[in-house]
Amino acid sequence: MTELFRLLSLQDASTRVVMLSTACLAIAAALAGSLAMLRRRALVGDAVAHASLPGICLAWFVAGDRSFAMLLLGAFVLGLVSMGMMALVQRLTKAREDATTAIAISGFFGLGIVLSRLIQNQPGGNRAGLDGFLFGKAASAVTSDAWIVLAVAGVVVATILALRKEFGLLCFDREFAAGIGRPVHRLDALLLVLVALVTVAGLPSVGVVLVVALLVIPPAAARCWSASLGTMFAVAAAIGAASAIIGTGLSAVLPPPGGASSGGWPTGPMIVLTAAALLALSLMVAPERGLLTALWRRHRLRASASRSIGSTP
Amino acid sequence: MTQAALALHGVSAAYRDELVLERIEASVPAASLCAIVGPNGAGKSTLIKAVLGLVPLAAGSVTVLGGTIAAMRGDVGYVPQSESVDWEFPISALEVVLMGSYGRLGLLRRAGRAERTQAMECLEQVGLAAFADRQISQLSGGQQQRVFLARALMQRPRLYLMDEPFAGVDAVTEEAILRVLGALRQRNCTIVAVHHDLSTVRDRFDHVLLLNKHLIAAGPVATTFTAEALQRTYGGRLAIIADAESGRTAVAAGY
After folding, report:
1. Are B204 and B35 in contact (CB under 8 A)?
2. Chain A: nearest CA to B82, how far in angstroms?
3. SS3 assignment, position A53
4. CB contact under 8 A, A228 and B107
5. Which of A18, A285, B109, B249 lies at 20 to 30 Å from A151 by C-alpha?
């Protein structure tokens, strides 16, 4: 209980920075994810995430020791490689985007698992470090790592807000954007790079397997509440940040499943479950689109219809 | 002779690796209302996109208002097919119309109060002022089409390229679009529109391009839009009942 209080009052400097950076990252992911979803590219983040595992492993081989920035750089590079390969396969085979994305997700993840096995058998290849990237491990993150995440989040948010109207146009009507001379290919590429950046920066806190949730769940929940892109951004950002803070908090204060020595709950699943709960709530009670709202409206309609039938002579 | 608003010099263009336009040689006079007519797959939409530079030219060149499209882009308005976008998108009618000002705003500047006022005027011209704040999914198909027209008005162009502006619209929208097109003509604007309904070409347009991969005929409707030319455009898939007295052509087009 005292620990919960300590956490919520943000007395602990490292918890404060980690929570802040995870929340800011969730905000950046919510904005990039909103655009990716509206551009029907939501799954690209998942491919980048899974391609980042071999990226992390390759960076480990190259850099030798476990340098956080190097590992993220490796993840980012392989994320871009996976997107390039998806585009190439699509162009050469005319396969649909969903199929190429599925190929990239499974193929790169398989490669990543093989490489991580190799690392485990190397001297100094500690399993725990890579496991943290699989499911997220924010509670144990060090402050300098958090600053990197914070910086990436800042760059992504600033870029999206500066180009908000262009990205809105691109996602709504790409033809028209091209028609007025916008560099639509470059804007598309920039959006994918932003998605790759938040995905990679989200790996330490949410992990390879679940990080796509930060890109998809808050925007999906926000869509229930929003009639404009600005509102969607704001609501998605709020839901993302709330999920990050609550999820990180839960993983820190919940009693570890296997006793104190077991290392505690990973943060990724906690953040994702919180976001999913907020999505479920949105689907139920949102105005216009909510399930309960619709049932209530139907009930009202039926009641008024039967009243008016009763009143006719 | 006045300068052509649009001139196509031996234009060939491909859509998905298939040549759909071959050596099109035609021009559209300034201040005319020109219909592009032809069967499905004749390359009508591709022609519009080729003019805008959205599909690359395999051969030939395009002159728009006396210059290249890159130089004259600010003077060219575009109304895409309304099915080409997701109408569930979280955006209001007014915000869609504001997109018409993006070309002159540049990448980083936002639309301000002046643009909002202009956008409201454009919505008013198409009879949708009352729907400015409506989310676009709550508009009818005809209203959505008119929002696209208002967005093109917002571009304040001299040449309008429209991809089936009359497709599937209700009577109110049809009347509103015709009113706007008439007003644009008064201001010496040129309109080039893909058009499917052969029975209304004579009433609504004064110039016509008959297209079926190749250019079949181009010129004033009165002399070009003949039963014989239509037969050549549509091949054997067309039954034409010419009414000599009214000069009208009642047509049933098969696809």
Report:
1. yes
2. 10
3. helix
4. no
5. B109
B106 touches chain A (CB under 8 A): no
- What ipTM goes with this model? 0.90
**Three-class DSSP category at B161:** strand
Tell me the pLDDT band of B255, cut-offs 50, 70 and 90.
Answer: very low
Domain harbouring A232, CATH code: 1.10.3470.10
Closest Cα in chain A, distance from residue B7 (Å): 18
Contact B111 A169 (CB under 8 A): no
Residues 41-70 of B with CB under 8 A from A: 49, 52-54, 70
Task: Find the residue in B nearest to A164 (Cα).
Answer: B108
Domain span holding position A96: 2-311
| Average pLDDT of the segment spanning B192-206 | 90
User: Over the stretch B74-99, which tens digit does the pLDDT of each residue have?
Assistant: 999 999 998 889 999 999 999 999 99
On the question of pLDDT at A98 being above 80, the answer is yes
Q: What is the pTM of this model?
A: 0.88
Provide the residue range defining the domain that includes B43: 4-253
Size of the A and B interface in Cβ pairs below 8 Å: 69
Phi, psi angles (nearest 5°) of residue A203:
-55, -45
Chain A contacts of B49, Cβ < 8 Å? 175
Separation CA A79–CA A253 (nearest Å)? 33
- What one-letter code names the amino acid at A289? R
pLDDT digits (tens, 9 = 90+) for B54-75: 999 999 999 999 999 999 999 9
Q: Which pLDDT score is estimated for B249?
A: 53
Res. A129 pLDDT band, cuts 50 70 90: low
How many domains does chain A contain in total? 1
CB contact under 8 A, A180 and B103: yes
| Residue B117, min C-alpha distance to chain A (Å) | 18
Of B148, B29, B33, B130, residue with least CA distance to B81: B148
Domain count across chain B: 1
What is the CATH classification number for the domain harbouring B197?
3.40.50.300
* A204-215 tens-digit pLDDT: 888 888 899 999
- Determine, for residues B103 and A227 on separate chains, whether the beta-carbon distance falls below 8 Å: no
A148: three-class secondary structure by DSSP: helix
